[in-house]
Amino acid sequence: MPTWEPTGPFEEQLWAAYRAQNSGACLALLRTTELALPISAEGAAGIEAPRWATAAREDRTWLLAYTSVESMGAGTDGQAIHCRITSLVELAAGWPDPQWGLAVNPGLPMQILLEPRTIARVAAPDMALEQLASPGQSPPLVQKPLPPAAMSGLFARRDNRVSGYVHLLADVKHIGSPNVLLDALGRSQDERELIDDDGSVFLLRWPAIGPALYRSPYGGTTEVSRAAMDGWVIEEPPFVGTGFVPNVDQVIREFKVDGIGLPHRSEVVEITIEGSESRRAVWDGDRGTWMLAVPLPPEEDRDTRAFLGGDFG
Length: 313
Description:
The protein is of the alpha+beta class. It has twelve helices and 15 strands. Helix 1 (about 10-20) packs antiparallel against helix 2 (about 25-30).
């Protein structure tokens, strides 16, 4: 092993946890830090697309990453000079191969090997685990695109159960365009189904009460990739199985639900082609029906809402 000393407070904390064999502390630290991934001089100069630096060991391909540029130089005997900076969460969202592992600080005394199943669970834990780690927080808002053709059927029935994939509103709140939103979610191919004739997209949105009902969809597109993730879901491509939507350029968490009941005051919102957002309906859990929102005149207070069928407090 080369001579090596931690660089900065983060590596000192990680080194202390590593020597104490505290794997939980190591993983918690790695989840929040930036990593240096070696790339070639051509990749750094933009002459070629950056390629993954990998090594084969123990019947697995390992993607190489370091906790600092200094550690990268020490771990590669100075051979790796250029790098790109990313995070474990960003890596997991665009993980290149479900059977690859992640080698953190290979060639150093503090070497940490993460199998793909561990990468997914550290980067995208189940919602219930996240809630336990942050007690007292309000339930996060989740949403899913709603086909315009399905809206009349939704409003007509008294059944408020929902199944399928949902994503966190917080991860996409900065996106105001229907087309950009669907692209970010990896659903550009569904634009004809999900965008109406005026260019709007409709979203079913509600607070995720009962976090155990919102499971991270670990898995893959084949039985082999599902087993590599130690997951429970097999879907057609472009499903990635790491708990993120299938878009390598985005970090958007997704969860899978099965027949959950929408809570009181769940909403259907419309995002127009201009990027404005308005509420179109609210679920009245007491009455067991959807209340359609009435558009207000421009001079009215936009913070007030009137609903067909009477006031909805």
